[in-house]
Amino acid sequence: MKKIEAKPVSMLELFYDLIFVYAISRITAMIHHPVGGGLALGTYGEFIIAIILVMQLWLYQTLYINRFGCSRLVDTVGLMISMYAAIYLANNINTTWVTTFQSFNSAMLLTVGNLLWQYLCGTGKQPWRGRDERAFIVTLLVEFIAILAGLLLGYRYGIYLCVLGGMVGFLMPLAFFRLFESAKVNFPHLVERLSLIIIISFGEALVNVTQYFHGALWAPLPLLIFVFLAALFGCYIIQIEQLQDYYQYTRGFVAMYSHVVMIMSLLTITVGLVYLAHDSVSRLFLVGMLTGSLLVFYLCLMCNAIYNQAEHRIEGSHIGWVLALWLVGSLLAFVWQNSNVGLMAGLTITNVGELLMMWRFASK
User: Fold this and answer.
1) Per residue in 246-263, pLDDT tens?
2) Cβ 206 vs Cβ 225: under 8 Å
3) Which of 12, 19, 57, 250 is deepest in the core (most CB within 10 A)?
């Protein structure tokens, strides 16, 4: 196979991502307010579903551009329609779905219908002959029918069909895994797109913790929070930019699905940092929320190591060190849980330790 030439990310794609800055902030707001010392399981479930519904639409648009997009009229018009629908979609994200059921799912329907049109008209004269094209079209068609049926039934029963449609769109490609051709994937472009959405999630975290940055310039809590986030971002950068082989032929499934879960963990960490300011939140719950989300993030990061360069393949000892550092930080956070500074000191030790270990590993 010939060497992959990286497809550049267009200005229009970056413009499209700006809407998801707003969408991610709306999703984060769903779990901003603790109840009864913690977070209701049902509310957190709705939060996870909202991430999946929004991100699977973003992924389908990204995958279309990655495989077939080349700045034709169908590509530009399709992306503009997706942007228009995404604004309505983001504006109707909340925990009282009954009030926004019609608006949110109408925007979902428009987006899925638009994606179907792009995959049918923008992938060649006979899209049904391509294995990738067939898999995308069948999946989107099933999702479209489910959402349409849900809208026609109304909120009481239709909500289940609409959610089912979104879950089908997210998970059904796994059933068609072998139909997708790695030769059609521009992996450098895909990694850049996924990295941008992670950067947006880190940006959301920074915006939410600005409430702690007042008073003395070197106050310990804001300093620890900043180092905690900076070190976590540094770990991601080392894995993606220094350890990973961009120029390889791969379907990219692990990268896509792990990044969606990373977004879930990052937004949960963001809300956990916000909860530091709430005296009503159970400290044990807060420690569990932050350490659990941190573990999920690192596990996802390790999943992406399957794309590493040959000389940077990870071994069992590396995974052991990652888990050991997380365990040490978690125990310290538990012991020091009654102090925000102590709790963050424990978690920051984990991230700084992970960063130093990854930096050393990348320098070999």
Assistant:
1) 888 898 899 999 999 999
2) no
3) 57
Q: What is the largest CA-CA distance in the chain?
A: 65
Planar angle of CA 348, 22, 50, nearest 5 degrees: 80
Task: Give the chain's end-to-end CA distance (angstroms, integer).
Answer: 29
Of residues 182 and 167, which shows the higher confidence score? 167
CA atoms within 13 A on the CB side of 350: 28
Report d(CA 128, CA 119) in Å as an integer.
Answer: 10
- 13-50 burial string, b = 16+ CB within 10 Å, else e? beebbebbbbbbbbbbebbeebeeebbeeeebebbbbb
> How many Å apart are CA 97 and CA 252, to the nearest integer?
33
Q: For helices 11-29 and 73-91, what crossing angle results, to 10°?
A: 20
70: Cα separation from own chain's centroid: 25
Asked if residue 264 lies in contact with residue 296, where contact means CB atoms within 8 angstroms, the answer is yes
Distance CA 337, CA 286 (A): 8
The whole-angstrom separation of Cα 201 and Cα 45 is: 19
Phi/psi region, residue 71 (left: phi>0; alpha: psi -120 to 50; beta: rest), is left
Helices 283-303 and 220-237 meet at what angle, rounded to 10? Answer: 20
6 SS3 class:
coil
pLDDT tens string 319-343? 899 999 999 999 999 999 999 999 9
Q: What does pLDDT average to over the chain?
A: 92
Integer angstrom CA distances of residue 244 from 191, 195, 286 = 10, 13, 33
Q: Are 93 and 46 in contact (CB under 8 A)?
A: no
Please state whether the predicted TM-score (pTM) of the whole model is above 0.90.
Answer: yes
Q: What pLDDT was estimated at residue 95?
A: 82
Percentage above 90 pLDDT, the chain: 71
| Contacts (Cβ under 8 Å, ≥6 apart) of 62 | 13, 190, 193
CB 97 within 8 A of CB 159: yes
More confident residue, 147 or 134: 147
